Amino acid sequence: MKIQMILNGRRIEEDIKPDTMLLDFVRAQGMKSVKRGCDTGNCGLCTVWLNEKPVLSCSTLAVRAADSRVTTLEGVEEEAAEFARYLAEEGADQCGFCSPGFIMTVLALKREIEHPTPDQIKEYLAGNLCRCTGYQSQYRALMKYFGVEEEA
To answer: pLDDT tens digit string along 112-140?
Structure first.
C-alpha cells in the first residue's frame, strides 16, 4: 500500500505493509529520536506530532498518517534545544532515553496552552515515564520554562 505524508517538512511517498506502525515507519526514514519503550502506549517515548497533535507512534498505524503532517524531534530541533537547556540546568537530562518523547509533549503543550497552570502541566505530562530522574528535576525545569511560580 502506498502512502504519502509530510515528515518534518519533507514530502515522502513510500510503499508500506498495512500493519506498519508509525514508529517503525519514521525510524525507517532516519528519525532515530523516536524511541521504542513499552509498545503498549504507556510510556510516551515514541511521541510524535500528527497534524500538530501529540500521538504515540507505537500504537498508531502509519496509514493513519497518510496525507498528514508528521513531526519528530528532528523537525523541531531549535525549540527542543531551548527546552533541553532547562532540563540540563535542573539535572533532568540523566540518560536521555525518554527526552525526545518528553520534549515533544512539552512543546505540544506550549503550543496548546501558552501559560499552563501547574495542574495542567502535570495532567498533560502524565503519560511520560522516566526511569532515572524521579520527575522533580523535570518538573522544576518545566516550571521555569513556562515561567510558572513553583508551588509552596
So the answer is: 998 999 999 888 888 888 777 677 888 89
What Cα–Cα distance (Å) separates residue 13 from each residue in 5, 29, 63, 67, 74?
7, 11, 12, 10, 19
**108: which 3 cell numbers?**
505540544
- The C-alpha atoms of residue 151 and residue 122 are separated, in whole angstroms, by 12
**Contact predicate 110/49, CB 8 Å:** no
Distance between first and last Cα of the chain: 55
> What are the grid coordinates assigned to 72, written together?
519528530
10 Å CB burial of residue 31 (0-12, 13-18, 19+) is buried
Pick the closest to residue 110 from 99, 119, 118, 121 (CA basis): 121
